[in-house]
Structure formats: structure tokens, C-alpha cells
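CO-FOLDING WORKSHEET

Operator: S.A.
Ligand of interest: S-adenosylmethionine
Run index: 266
Mode: holo prediction, single chain
Checklist:
[x] sequence pasted
[x] SMILES validated
[ ] output reviewed
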Amino acid sequence: MPTDKEPACDLDLATAEHIDMASMEFTYERLRQLARNKNLSRDEKIGFPDSYRVGYTDAILSDIVSKFNGMERRNGTLVDIGCGCGSLVQGVVALLHECNLKGIMVDSEEMLAQVPDNENIKKVAGFFPKNIDSIRQAAPEGADYLLCYSVLHCSSPDLNLFSFIDNIIDVLKPGGLALIGDIPNVSKRKRFFSSAEGIAFHKSFMKTDQAPAVEWLKVEHDKIDDAVLCGLVRRAQAAGCDAYILPQPSTLPMANRRDDLLIRKY
Ligand SMILES: C[S@@+](CC[C@H](N)C(=O)[O-])C[C@H]1O[C@@H](n2cnc3c(N)ncnc32)[C@H](O)[C@@H]1O
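OUTPUT RECEIVED:
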């Protein structure tokens, strides 16, 4: 949603030919513009440099399936909030078919227009959780699985994370699982870049002999850290759910600085 806090951007994201994806901060509104940009690849349209996603879809999907207990529930519903239009959503659509699940794909109209149509999926446009009534209409039985992958950090500076989690829990069926995945955890990033492994990674990746700058005694406003993640776990537990912070396998491109949050509703 456009808000007063929407960061200013000098580029026209809908037409620019060169965008430094790795250093740019994205929001729902900025991503709507990117989705319209005909110069960009499928994964660049969701704000990733190709090197972060191309060739990783199978590893990401198999991690999602394992965190969803092998997706053992069949004939149910998976809601994908912030599905995007990249290579991962193509894999999710194929997986839905394989597991005989209905899919409710939730994102902006610009993103959804580029998700292939298919009789197993319904599309609900708009900003979650503002569009929760339309999601309930599309899936009155609730969700067996809810996927929200790589979304939390690029939604809106005004996003109320507790309300976001409350609404995710509301959409789940009893016994349903929600995976809020690929969350950049700035505390984890600091731990990694303070370690010998992280310093060596930084030097080789940035082609420098300087160690990365890590500021420990600094509150990172508008970023997600250990405290925020623990707060979300406690919020889900307070709503009667089990909730866990889980690591990503090292085969995933950003495993050294991202965490997943898994919620199981009773
Ligand atoms: C980085 S992309 C990730 C897309 C996809 N989940 C993936 O991992 O390939 C983030 C997506 O979330 C969408 N998004 C961000 N905030 C949202 C919100 N509050 N409601 C619905 N979609 C949202 C954006 O439009 C964008 O498509």
C-alpha cells in the first residue's frame, strides 16, 4: 500500500534497463512497478538478481515440502501470499498439481497477471491482510498450507507484523501449517559476518581484503532481528499455535543470513 513512509526512488522501476537489485530495498508498491518492466527477467521482476534464484528452485521447493511434512495432506488448499511471478511460483503451481491441492495465489494484479492460469488455482489480488475477506471467500474451508516466502521484508514500512501473523493464523485450518520463509534476520547476518567463515565469504564475494563492517551496538530500525522473530513466535504461541524458527539448508543461496518461521495451528 502506498504510505507516507514509502521510500523515495529516483529510478522509474517500470522502465529502467539497469537496476542494482542486490542493494535496493523493495516494497509492495515498488514491486508492482518492477513487475511491469519488460526489460527484466522473471526473477528480477520480484526483486532478485538472477544469480540469487536461477538454478535454486528445486532446492527451495524441496525445503518447503520437507517443512510442510512432505505435504501429506491431499485434496486440500495451499494459500501462497506474495507468490510473485518468478521461477519459484512456476514450481509451486506444478507442485500443487502433483499433490492434488487447490492453490490460492495472492499478490498484486501486476504479479498475478504473469502467473499461469490453471483450473487448480484462484487468484486474489491485493495487499495482505487488507484482502483477507477475498481470501476467505476463495478458500472458505481455510488453508491446509500457507506459504509466504521472501515477503515479510519487502512489503511496507508500515506493515504491522503482529497483525500479519494474526491474519495468517486466521486463514489456517486446524492442523494447518504456515511457512513464513526466507526472512532476512539482521542478527544472524551480523553473527555470520563476525565469524571467520563470514569474513572469508565477504572478502571473496566483494573481491576485497577488508573485513565486513559489523556494528553490534546498533538498533536496526525497520529490519527484522532475533528479537522480532522471537516476538512473532511468542505471538503465534499466544494464539494457541506451535511456532518455530528454522534454518535453511546450506544449499539455499541466502542460508547464512535468512531464517524460516513455521507455525502449526491446533
Ligand atoms: C521478493 S518477492 C517473492 C515472491 C515469491 N514468494 C518468491 O519467493 O519467488 C515478494 C512478493 O511479495 C509480494 N508482496 C509483498 N507484500 C505483500 C503483501 N502485503 N500482500 C501481498 N503480496 C505482497 C510482492 O508483490 C512480491 O511479489
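REVIEW:
Residues 186-223 form one domain.
The pocket of S-adenosylmethionine is lined by residues 28, 31, 46-47, 81-84, 86, 88-89, 106-108, 111, 127-128, 149-151, 154-155 (CB under 6 Å).
[x] output reviewed
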